[in-house]
Design goal:
By secondary structure, the chain is mainly beta. It has strands at residues 2-7, 10-13, 18-26, 34-39, 46-51, 57-60, 68-73, 78-83, 92-98, 109-114. Strand 4 and strand 5 (46-51) form a beta hairpin. The chain is globular.
Length: 115
């Protein structure tokens, strides 16, 4: 079983920045790809960014390209999402998970961007 704990969300004005963190613990196995996902009110959960165990980035959603950066520290079992130039449409609950998502979801962290 894997436990995921996301943190770093908050309320920010448009144009601002946030850095999200997600720590995985438990039976993660080795060499797992990770992703950041988000779910806005009334919408499906979507993949925002993904990264390989090696640190190579493998995916950014078109809506966040050039603004968000995913990274990871395998020594800390932690994945990060640096979010810059935030827009109101980035408002959502942000989750991390393996990619593809095979673990139980954590509680997520709320990001709210005001205009």
């Amino acid at each position: 079983q894997v436990q995921l704990v996301e943190s770093g969300g908050g309320l920010v004005q448009a144009g601002g920045s946030l850095r999200l963190s997600c720590r995985a613990s438990g039976r993660t196995g080795s060499y797992y790809d990770m992703g950041w996902y988000r779910q806005a009110p009334g919408k499906e959960r979507e993949l925002v960014a993904a990264i390989r165990w090696s640190g190579d980035t493998i995916y950014y959603a078109d809506s966040v390209k050039g603004r968000f950066t995913i990274s990871r520290d395998n020594t800390k079992s932690t994945v990060y999402l640096q979010m810059n130039s935030l827009k109101p449409e980035d408002t959502a609950i942000y989750y991390c998970n393996s990619r593809p998502s095979t673990w139980s979801w954590g509680q997520g962290t709320q990001v709210t961007v005001s205009s």
